[in-house]
Specification:
The chain has three helices and eight strands, in the order E-H-E-E-E-H-E-H-E-E-E. It is an alpha+beta fold and about 140 residues long. The longest helix is centred in the N-terminal third of the chain and has 12 residues.
């Protein structure tokens, strides 16, 4: 383990919420909390459109599928709207992924890959993370 005394995570990057109607979700967060979109992007590789709402140094990430075969579309069909995953910032995504795999954590991504906002990301399977999909995020 490297990074800090607290481990490989440096902070929470985002909490991702799967929604069916991105514009309606954005409007709700704006009306209920005064939240505004800091970044919006279509991530073709993952088949999603995201809107990031800034909360201090982190984000609420609203996700909606852009195609029927995306993981978020499958999630919505199976579980409905709600918490999809938690993204944790790491100093080195490859090192964090290797460290997690060395302890027996099942990785979804074999190697880090490009994420939104120019980040590098890797996902860890919820079956080995107490039911929570984890995204490692390197800025």
């Amino acid at each position: 383990m490297t990074a800090t005394d607290a481990g490989l995570f440096t902070e929470i990057d985002h909490v991702a919420i799967a929604v069916r109607d991105l514009d309606a979700a954005i409007a709700w967060y704006r009306e209920a909390f005064g939240a505004t979109v800091d970044h919006r992007e279509v991530v073709e590789h993952d088949g999603v459109e995201e809107a990031l709402l800034k909360v201090a140094d982190s984000y609420v990430q609203l996700l909606t599928p852009t195609r029927d075969d995306s993981p978020v579309a499958k999630y919505l069909a199976a579980k409905g709207e709600g918490l999809h995953h938690v993204g944790y910032r790491v100093a080195d995504c490859a090192a964090a992924l290797d460290a997690a795999k060395a302890t027996g954590v099942k990785a979804i991504d074999a190697a880090p890959r490009p994420g939104s906002r120019g980040t590098t990301v890797a996902f860890l399977h919820p079956k080995t993370a107490f039911g929570t999909l984890i995204e490692l995020v390197q800025e």
